[in-house]
Amino acid sequence: MGTFEIHGIAPGLPVDDLVAHSEGGPEAALRAAELLFPARRFELAAVDASASDDLWLRTHGPTTAILGRHGRDAEIPGGLGYFSFTHQTVSDAYAIEVRTPQAARFVVLSPGAVDLQEGDPLPFEQPFWAGAHDKYDDSAVRFDVADFASAAMLWMFGYDPAGPNPHSRVDPALGNYHTLREATPDHAPPSNTNRPSWLSRLLGRR
């Protein structure tokens, strides 16, 4: 498929609840989907690799993690934050977005370049920018963007998508996610207009 996406809706860093709470089970997944996608109705479904529109979701206490593009369409309840990580594997480009009551950050990187930066750097970024890059300068980066992406995922979701990492705190296994399918196929998902141009550029690279 070429694109990996994970989205977290949480009161704090998603990893805190992913570690502190066991997975909530299928009924909790359905309740979370109802809350985050109020205009749609989902039902539990068997795993089917050919069903690209399935919603993959897990809950840990007040935190919900969503795999895939549907996470971009979630309606974020008041008091919760949004954490998003996208990797376009063909072009090796990454997008990291965080929107909370305390912070707003959006950064897109591809090998050797910063494509876009908005907001102040997040705590995990400090080792990358300090002394090596002016955060307001979109010149070539002087670090491995894959290392930046690994640090982002560890900070937000507690594991490294690149593979085993001694700092991982969460098991990313797909078995921890529930497969939900829209019960009313004629009800098209809402379109998220927050980042159409930059995300289409990132996800459209081949």
- Structural class, from secondary structure content? alpha+beta
Total number of strands = 9
Shape: globular
> What is the string of SSEs from the N terminus onward?
EHHEEEEEEEHHEH
Task: Note poorly predicted spans.
Answer: none
Largest sheet at a glance?
9 strands, antiparallel
The level of helicity is: 10-25%
Mean pLDDT: 86
Distance between the termini: 11 Å
Q: Radius of gyration in whole Å, from Cα?
A: 17 Å
Number of helices: 5
Strand content: 25-35%
Walk across the major sheet and give the strand order: 2-9-3-4-1-5-6-7-8
Q: Tally the structural domains.
A: 1
Features:
206 residues, alpha+beta, 9-stranded antiparallel sheet, 5 helices, 9 strands
How would you explain this protein's 3D organization?
The chain has 206 residues and is α+β, with helices and mostly antiparallel strands. The protein has one domain (3-204). It is 21% helix and 27% strand. It has helices at residues 14-20, 26-36, 126-129, 145-157, 196-204; strands spanning 3-10, 42-44, 55-60, 63-67, 81-88, 93-99, 104-110, 113-118, 178-182. Strands 2-9-3-4-1-5-6-7-8 form a nine-stranded antiparallel β-sheet, with helices on both faces. The longest helix is centred in the C-terminal third of the chain and has 13 residues, at 145-157. The radius of gyration is 17 Å and the shape is globular. The mean pLDDT is 86.
